[in-house]
């Protein structure tokens, strides 16, 4: 993103004016249009919108976004397998190329490659930590098990096996037989298998304008424009997240 | 544990810096160098004194080995930040627009390339002031927290990360209280219906309602 262009709007002629953002309803924004700076801002906002559609996201940015989303979302998201594969291929290619380069260039390339590797690692670790938290739930629910890679699925199953073996050995086998299950569902809807809390709070930013969006049936819809930031329940925006219309922060 | 408990709560400072380092910034190279093919694409060629755009991490790396001068972004100037600060200070003003990673970028530039930032001392102070005004604003925003949504545009990544634990847990707590309150309302009206339907003398079991304030008042 070209930061200089993006923020030039702030150098307007009228220092007293808040051009800043938020809850200005569309109608009142129009009434302020006499202000020269507002006009400029609007222009740059439109440009932003165009930029966004033109720019093809590279694999690194995609993984970066997947990583931040994964870190903030309460449940596990779709695995970015293709992106990681592409990036790792690129990394191998860069490592090959590095050998024939002078020291300074090789150094830069090495640092670049290390940064990519770091991101991939952190992304995978984030997912593993989520899998460890709710392994049984993710394996049992088809919607979630589809989101895991084969390796992750094996890991989750292995983890469940180990955990079960451990609790059986340490105390479960000493209990009366009818108390020995690990995935019981009681009559009142209490389950032994833990689930992620899909209603937990997340911060999200709108990537492409959604328009009027109903956060809750009982409340008035709210305009979701590009770059708006909200704190809201994950369950409300998780569909928008899947469509890539919002990103988590 | 695959990641630390701190990381589960949000991002750590080094991670935020890592993100900020991916933003691009203009530099003036001091040596000639051919274009570099990085994973994210090509940068350069480096032909002094022509400006060129590179990722921030590369700019800092080159700067530390004295191979370039960093061109401070236009928002990192005394004049601009002062304007923002004045606007930010006005009562009932909203958050002003700053780059997503302005604190981290400013920090890195002021640490590694202080000589390339004009009025660096004044800017440092101003950034601190700006940050404090914004912090007090987020604190006031906290009062408006409700269990559905709260809009807070133009908060930067570091600022969001800072308020995340408090806001998230309060949000979740409000939500739970809300659920309890509506459940209590539900049982109360349910009770009323029952009372109307059946004879008043019919004893009603306290176990029937999961949570109702009346059962605590008796």
From TrEMBL, chain A:
Pfam families tied to this protein: Sld5, SLD5_C
Polar residues composition-biased segments: 21-34
Broad class of where this protein is predominantly found: nucleus
Domain GINS subunit positions: 102-169
Ranges of compositional bias, category Acidic residues: 46-55
Annotated stretches, region: Disordered: 1-55
GO cellular component, one term: GINS complex
GO biological process, one term: double-strand break repair via break-induced replication
Biological function: The GINS complex plays an essential role in the initiation of DNA replication.
Family under the similarity heading: Belongs to the GINS4/SLD5 family.
InterPro entries documented for this protein: GINS_A, GINS_bundle-like_dom_sf, GINS_Sld5, SLD5_C, Sld5_GINS_A
Entry's transmembrane regions: none
Keywords in alphabetical order: DNA replication, Nucleus
Annotated localization: Nucleus
All residue ranges annotated as the DNA replication complex GINS protein SLD5 C-terminal domain in the record: 196-249
Name by which UniProt lists this protein: DNA replication complex GINS protein SLD5
Automatic annotation (TrEMBL), chain B:
Keywords: Chromosome partition, DNA replication, Nucleus
UniProt entry tagged with the keyword Nucleus: yes
Subunit structure, as described in the record: Component of the GINS complex.
Primary localization class, coarse: nucleus
The organism of origin for this protein: Coemansia spiralis
Positions in coiled-coil regions: none
GO terms, biological process: chromosome segregation; DNA replication; double-strand break repair via break-induced replication
Residue ranges of the TM segments: none
Span of domain DNA replication complex GINS protein PSF2 N-terminal: 12-71
One Pfam family linked to the record: Sld5
Any one Gene Ontology cellular component term annotated for this protein: GINS complex
Places the protein is found: Nucleus
Lineage: Eukaryota, Fungi, Fungi incertae sedis, Zoopagomycota, Kickxellomycotina
Gene designation: PSF2
Bias (Low complexity): 188-202
Protein's UniProt name: DNA replication complex GINS protein PSF2
């Amino acid at each position: 993103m070209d930061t200089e262009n993006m923020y030039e709007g702030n150098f307007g002629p009228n220092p007293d004016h808040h051009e800043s953002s938020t809850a200005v309803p569309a109608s009142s924004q129009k009434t302020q249009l006499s202000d020269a700076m507002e006009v400029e801002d609007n222009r740059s906002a439109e440009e932003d919108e165009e930029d966004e559609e033109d720019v093809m996201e590279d694999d690194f940015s995609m993984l970066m976004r997947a990583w931040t989303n994964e870190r903030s979302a309460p449940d596990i998201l779709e695995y970015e397998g293709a992106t990681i594969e592409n990036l790792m291929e690129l990394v191998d290619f860069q490592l090959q190329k590095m050998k024939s380069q002078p020291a300074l260039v090789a150094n830069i390339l090495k640092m670049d490659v290390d940064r990519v590797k770091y991101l991939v690692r952190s992304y995978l670790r984030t997912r593993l930590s989520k899998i460890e938290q709710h392994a049984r739930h993710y394996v049992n629910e088809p919607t979630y098990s589809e989101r895991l890679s084969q390796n992750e699925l094996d890991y989750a199953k292995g983890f469940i096996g180990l955990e079960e073996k451990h609790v059986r050995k340490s105390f479960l086998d000493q209990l009366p037989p009818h108390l020995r299950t690990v995935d019981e569902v009681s009559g009142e809807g209490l389950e032994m298998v833990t689930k992620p809390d899909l209603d937990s709070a997340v911060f999200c930013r709108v990537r492409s304008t959604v328009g009027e969006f109903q956060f809750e049936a009982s409340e008035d819809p709210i305009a979701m424009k590009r770059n708006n930031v909200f704190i809201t329940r994950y369950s409300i925006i998780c569909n928008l997240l899947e469509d890539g219309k919002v990103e988590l922060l | 544990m695959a990641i630390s408990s701190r990381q589960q709560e949000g991002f750590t400072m080094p991670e935020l810096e890592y993100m900020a380092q991916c933003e691009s910034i203009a530099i003036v190279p001091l040596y000639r160098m051919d274009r570099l093919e990085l994973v994210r694409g090509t940068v350069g060629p480096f032909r002094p004194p022509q400006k060129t755009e590179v990722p921030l991490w590369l700019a800092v790396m080159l700067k530390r080995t004295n191979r370039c001068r960093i061109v401070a972004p236009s928002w990192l100037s005394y004049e601009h930040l002062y304007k923002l600060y004045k606007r930010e200070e006005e009562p009932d003003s909203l958050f002003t627009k700053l780059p997503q990673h302005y604190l981290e970028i400013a920090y890195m530039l002021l640490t590694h390339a202080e000589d390339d930032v004009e009025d660096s001392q004044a800017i440092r102070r101003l950034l601190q002031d700006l940050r404090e005004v914004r912090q007090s604003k987020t604190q006031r925003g906290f009062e408006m927290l409700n269990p559905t949504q709260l809009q807070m545009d133009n908060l930067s990544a570091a600022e969001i990360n800072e308020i995340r634990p408090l806001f998230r847990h309060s949000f979740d707590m409000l939500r739970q209280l809300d659920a309890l309150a509506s459940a209590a309302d539900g049982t109360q009206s349910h009770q009323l219906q029952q009372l109307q339907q059946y004879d008043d003398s019919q004893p009603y079991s306290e176990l029937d309602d999961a949570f109702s304030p009346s059962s605590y008042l008796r």
